Amino acid sequence: MSVQLRNVGELLSPNGPVFQVAYTALRTVPALAKWLVILLFVVNAKSWPLMWHIRVFRPVFRIWFQHRLLLWRTMFCSRPVREKRIDEWLDSVSPIGEGPFDKVDVYKTRATTDESDYNGHLSNSSYAKTLDSARFYTAIAMFPMFLRSGGWIPLGGTHFIYLREIPMFAQYEVRSMVASWDQKWLFIIHRFVTKSKGKKTKGKAAKSSPEQTGTPDQTQAVQNILRASLSTSADAISSTNSPFPGTPIGTGSTPETSAALKAAAASLVSTEEPDGATLHTIAVSGVCFKIGRITVPPALVIAANGFSAPPSEFGSSLTAYSNKNPPPHWEKAKAVMSVPVGGSTKALRKLFKDGWRDVPESERWWDQALSGVIEQKRKARLEAVSVLRSGMEGMKTLASLGLE
């Protein structure tokens, strides 16, 4: 009995195996907890404090740094040389000569754990969170001259159409492009897509594989949903629903023009990407342009940043406009905002704020820059987006009445 008690005492002594195991376990648990906390902190990096602000304002930091670097490089140059260098840099960051419906800005990101739901997919709320960054990225790329003049671009609303989920850890892109605009609102289409690794595409004519677009019945169902939401049938475009009452869209148009309008409208609901990427979600954002509390016409902002109709609309033999071969209206725009030719940021701000009202309609270079085929496409696309907007406005009316 004494031997057994002695053995038990040895086991429970400070130098015994039981105490050593317990001591090691107690020291190990805090270490495991520490590494678990660090791991949890790392996998949720995109949700750290101020990370949303860093992601959203990242393009602002980048272009600000480029501007400051240019100022440092030209600090010992004469004033005329410095102003010319700055003016050339401003032109280089503007979409001079591009078509407003042709420019696509791509924002790349990944579906991290903190933005995914319990099913292992990107959560519904994360789409809106990602769009905050994508819209800011698009604004910097498309409208640098407007933002430079002190303008801001508030969001009026966003509508989502979910087609298929984005798996957790998947890298995806938000492809943003102008859908249309009216006298106040600019509508932007955002397409959430993923690319298949190792897949070779066949140029712009490449179509999605069966795994990407689903069965014919599924694809048709998706397109029916989209058409019901956006009403994109060009045949349904009439004077009664026209954004400009009394001006029927397509009246007196040639077969080629009618075909172009139908193609423009149908492009808003295409479930296929030119490079064969998988389309997951479509979002439509409505934004407007403000100088203080004053609304600026979207056409003025679009043209002032260099967007234009193609050269064929102005009888030019060029295949496309560019920074070196700017569109006809760019000279008039530069006369307002370019310092080397007598313009200024102050003059541009005044034009945006209320100066455009004093310009006769026949002399409004921004309307002339977006005439012809651009105006036809704008009307066709606006018809599609307007139906969606009308539906959302109807829901807002119901909500204001307290109805379900």
Indicate the overall shape. Answer: globular
Helical content class: 40-55%
Q: CATH superfamily name of the largest domain?
A: Hotdog Thioesterase
Total domains = 2
Biggest sheet record: 6 strands, antiparallel
Query: Overall mean pLDDT score?
Result: 79
Q: Helical segment tally?
A: 14
Radius of gyration: 29 Å
What's the SSE pattern? HHHHEHHEEEHHHEEHHHHH
Distance between the termini: 81 Å
CATH class of the largest domain: Alpha Beta
User: What is the CATH-assigned architecture of the largest domain?
Assistant: Roll
Strand content: 5-15%
CATH topology assignment of the largest domain: Thiol Ester Dehydrase, Chain A
Poorly predicted tracts of residues: 1-5, 201-254
Annotation, overall tally of beta strands:
6
Structural class of the secondary structure composition? Answer: alpha+beta
Region (Disordered): 236-255
Family: Belongs to the lcsJ thioesterase family.
What is the topological layout?
Blueprint: H1 2-12, H2 17-43, H3 51-73, H4 79-92, E1 105-110, H5 124-142, H6 144-148, E2 155-162, E3 171-181, E4 185-194, H7 210-213, H8 216-230, H9 255-266, E5 278-291, E6 294-296, H10 298-304, H11 330-337, H12 345-353, H13 365-369, H14 373-400
Antiparallel strand pairs: 1-3, 2-5, 3-4, 4-5, 5-6
Helix pairs in contact: 3-5, 9-14
Question: Could you give a short description of this structure?
Answer:
Belongs to the lcsJ thioesterase family. The protein has 404 residues and is of the alpha+beta class.
Q: Your description of this structure?
A:
With 404 residues, the chain is α+β, with helices and mostly antiparallel strands. It folds into two domains: 2-43; 46-197 and 211-399, Thiol Ester Dehydrase, Chain A, CATH 3.10.129. The chain contains 14 helices and six strands. It has helices spanning 2-12, 17-43, 51-73, 79-92, 124-142, 144-148, 210-213, 216-230, 255-266, 298-304, 330-337, 345-353, 365-369, 373-400; strands at residues 105-110, 155-162, 171-181, 185-194, 278-291, 294-296. Strands 1, 2, 3, 4, 5 and 6 form a six-stranded antiparallel sheet that branches. The radius of gyration is 29 Å and the shape is globular. Residues 236-255 are annotated as: Disordered. InterPro entries: HotDog_dom_sf (IPR029069), THEM6_lcsJ_thioesterase (IPR051490). Belongs to the lcsJ thioesterase family.
